[in-house]
Design brief:
Chain lengths: 162, 381
């Protein structure tokens, strides 16, 4: 694997690794890692770094919904046009064009169920190309961005073994 | 009355690991770099196959040699991976861990009074195994300056030409040393010249980071004199499922099976189902665990270099084997455990040749590894 791929994989594993620790794991020096990360950012490969939060452990309420969107297009409007318009709303966490029964899969996050509902009915549904929305509120999260939300496994190995 | 313990048991020296285990068990919040098994769980697909087999009530014995579909899968796997050609029918024996296979080989192939040359430092079972079968152990120490590889000269210097059996393990526990095909050639030559049987423990074969693993049994004239041991414990993180296999020409596995059929009957059935699935679908997970070990290996070797601790670039298993900062590695390991709460195992626990060294296992997550290395750095400065 190239250094670029190795660095990318390590950042995917844990974006808080220091450049020194990445360098040690990849077997290179910190400057090379700095440069590689700068290149990955400049090339638009790395688009950002965010924490994975289990909102159940936070006092503030946080509501999430997965929303199916159906659209009808005309000669002047493409999927990209619709997507760009929706993606600009800060409450939209993710937006994907998907195969299957509907066109877009959108994730929305807000402070309350009413805020999320209002957003969908007042901002998303009125978009002329959107013909239908189906909203699924998230009731429980088990895993996100590859990280499981369980209690984690205790290391039950013998402390010293041959 | 008191029990009169058998002589062959009394002759086995107490375990050097045991002492550290007891010390470590008394302490809270230690970080252990003294563990000889993966920190991962077995791949989920393998665990699920085991669960499914239980749901289907597959809880009876299997054939003595192991399920035939498992032996077929093993035969195909070792041919593909290492170029080892063994017949599923009569050259592969599925055992309860590679450890059972090694024990069977000793009992089936070593007579009282035979000389068993054991390449050291080594896994803790080789010397006792020889003693149990009445063999005389001949130490064949490897050296730090050879990066703990076995050389023709080391075999000569220890008088291994008079031995009947040569026991070796590469990739090695505790040193992490590996040997390339080229480096194994003189060893094979020595074995052929002096007509030695070779027990080759290749349990860490999938965990090499600088070059592909070569089995000594693939070298000319070696297949007919070698018993190869492998298993699912390390690469597939299945230690507790106890599943390994031995591969050798039919007369050897038949003799081993004669003991196995009476003492073990068959290896654990549930584990056999897990193993079949592991071979069928878990290559990607093995590869990603291996990639993770390699990153930790790089990390540990870099940190030792930064600390000025001499450590050869161990290229296999999940062990680094640095020189102890103090002359007495046992004292160092004990002090490190008591002062900083970091457990490592002194090389002497693994036989001759390990003096002045420490086995540092990197089968531990990077967070703990980082903290442990910081504590070691603090302790020695």
């Amino acid at each position: 694997m190239s250094t670029r791929d190795e660095v990318l994989e390590l950042l995917r594993e844990n974006a808080r690794y220091t450049v020194e620790d990445i360098a040690r794991q990849v077997g290179t020096d910190a400057e090379t890692v700095e440069e590689t990360i700068a290149d990955l950012e400049a090339d638009g490969v790395l688009r950002g770094y965010r924490a994975v939060v289990d909102w159940d452990q936070v006092d503030r309420e946080r509501v999430r919904a997965a929303v199916e969107l159906n659209v009808t297009l005309d000669r002047e409007t493409s999927y990209n046009d619709v997507a760009e318009r929706i993606a600009k709303f800060p409450m939209v966490e993710s937006l994907h064009l998907v195969s299957g029964d509907y066109d877009f899969m959108m994730e929305v996050e807000g402070e309350s169920m009413s805020k999320v509902s209002h957003f969908i009915s007042e901002k998303v549904a009125p978009v002329p190309e959107i013909t239908q929305t189906v909203t699924h509120y998230v009731m429980e999260s088990y895993k996100e961005n590859g990280i499981e939300f369980g209690d984690g496994d205790d290391d039950d190995r013998l402390s010293v073994s041959p | 009355m008191t029990f009169d313990i058998a002589d062959r048991v009394e002759r086995v020296p107490p375990s050097g690991i045991r002492r550290f285990f007891e010390l470590a068990e008394e302490m809270d919040d230690i970080i252990s770099l003294g563990v000889g098994e993966p920190d991962f769980s077995a791949p989920w697909a393998a665990r699920e196959a085991a669960i499914a087999s239980l749901e289907q009530g597959k809880t009876s014995y299997t054939a003595n040699r192991g399920r035939s579909d498992l032996r077929e899968a093993i035969s195909a796997h070792v041919a593909d991976r290492y170029g080892l050609e063994y017949e599923a029918d009569d050259e592969i024996l599925v055992t309860a861990g590679a450890s059972e296979g090694i024990d069977l080989a000793y009992r089936a192939l070593v007579d009282p009074g035979d000389t068993v040359a054991v390449v050291q430092p080594c896994y803790v079972s080789y010397v006792p195994g020889s003693i149990f079968s009445g063999g005389n152990v001949l130490d064949v120490p490897t050296k730090a300056e050879d990066e703990f590889k076995l050389t023709y000269e080391a075999l000569q210097a220890s008088g291994a030409e008079d031995a009947d059996v040569l026991v070796l393990c590469y990739p090695n526990n505790p040193t992490g040393a590996t040997m390339t095909g080229e480096e194994l050639k003189p060893v094979a030559e020595f074995a052929r010249e002096h007509d030695l049987v070779v027990f080759s423990d290749e349990i860490y074969a999938d965990l090499t980071y600088e070059h592909e693993h070569t089995s000594i049994a693939t070298l000319p004239g070696m297949r007919e004199r070698t018993v190869v041991f492998n298993g699912f414990s390390k690469a597939y993180a299945m230690t507790g499922l106890r599943l390994g296999y031995a591969m050798a020409p039919p007369e050897a596995t038949t003799a081993m099976n004669r003991i196995h059929q009476y003492t073990m009957l068959s290896a654990p059935t549930t584990a056999q189902y897990a193993a079949i699935e592991a071979l069928r679908t878990c290559d990607d997970e093995v590869a990603s665990m291996k990639a993770e070990y390699n990153r930790r290996r790089n990390f540990v070797l870099s940190r030792f270099e930064e600390m000025g601790v001499d450590c050869f670039p161990a290229a296999g298993a999940f062990y680094a084997f640095p020189e102890s900062p103090w002359d007495d590695a046992g004292e160092f390991a004990e002090a490190l455990l008591q002062e900083e709460g970091v457990a490592v195992v002194p090389g002497t626990a693994f036989g001759t040749g390990g003096e002045g060294h420490l086995r540092v296992s990197y089968a531990t997550g990077l967070g703990d590894l980082k903290e442990a290395m910081a504590r070691i750095e603090k302790f020695i400065s």
